[in-house]
Amino acid sequence: MAKKTINNDVLLANIIKGIEEVKGSDIDVLDLREIDTAVCDYFIICNGNSNTQVNAIVNSIQKTVSKDLKDKPWHVEGSDVAEWVLMDYVHIVVHVFQKHIREYYNIESLWGDAKITKIENKY
Fold this sequence. Notes:
4 helices, globular, translation regulation, Ribosomal silencing factor RsfS, NT_sf
């Protein structure tokens, strides 16, 4: 049986909902579709205040996407240390950082050609 394809917009909305559920902050969506060398269509970048909150954000995203879309990430990396957790949903890659690690790596500047959409916090 073939796996159903999930609309990127619906997946983006569910990932953002999962981040907001546990008060993840500084949410940026990088649209990489116009960049030839991009490995996926979108990056979603956010941060938490501690390794506990980073793991809570990751768990919330997984729970929300699983419940609403019956999907799970293809790969999750970095949960052990929880300073930078990468969640790979194939077309969308989520980066959940602790704030100081996000500032150090500054992924947004590495993908400067991407269209960046800032998501305002609802709290």
